[in-house]
Design brief:
2 domains; flat
């Protein structure tokens, strides 16, 4: 194939449109919602110092449903679809049982309340990552990885919240200074336009 043919083919292919971008974002929406809910749950646990037991169980079930729904169109045949449902059901039942073991009274005496939320998020992250690996789904595996990374990030964030506030104030100050400077700058195009009109 010559370069001219390749250029003609590239020219004939339409550029990505807003509809394509909107479709891509719609496909990624379940993963983004699950990640947002997981981070919101940890943030609430850290602020209120109370573990959200039912919340994590609901989130585990919701991610299990997302796993089945996203792989359903790719799975052909009734037998394969039944296998998909049963393997995911067993996987997430095991995750839920492990979460409930961590919530037993004897185990709770060993863990402070904020740590319980982080442990449940770690179990949820591990379950999500392993589900992504078994389903060969990059999005689900990445979701689990992002949840797992959130655990040490949250403890680091609590220790350095003061530095984040200072950084935010600095960025806001720089943005305001830049914006005010743009407003005070005289327009360069106005004298040139007037000069061209007179000529």
């Amino acid at each position: 194939m010559t370069e001219i043919d390749a250029q003609q083919r590239d020219a004939s292919e339409p550029p990505p449109t807003r509809a394509g971008t909107a479709r891509f974002l719609w496909q990624q929406l379940p993963y983004l919602v699950a990640l947002t809910l997981a981070i919101a749950g940890v943030a609430y646990t850290n602020v209120s110092h109370q573990p959200l037991v039912g919340y994590w169980e609901f989130l585990a079930l919701a991610i299990g449903v997302v796993c089945v729904v996203t792989k359903w169109p790719e799975t052909e045949g009734r037998e394969n679809r039944i296998r998909l449902i049963w393997t995911q059901a067993l996987h997430w039942i095991a995750v839920l049982i492990t979460m409930n073991i961590m919530l037993l009274a004897g185990v709770q005496q060993l863990l402070p309340t904020p740590a319980t939320g982080l442990v449940l998020l770690t179990l949820l992250a591990l379950g999500t990552f392993l589900a992504g690996v078994s389903l060969l789904s990059l999005q689900i595996a990445f979701l689990g990885l992002a949840m797992g990374v959130a655990v040490p990030a949250i403890s680091w964030l609590k220790q350095s919240i003061f530095f984040f506030l200072l950084g935010a104030v600095l960025l806001i100050g720089l943005a305001l200074a830049f914006w005010l400077r743009q407003d005070q700058r005289p327009s360069v195009d106005a004298p040139e336009a007037r000069h061209q009109a007179e000529a």
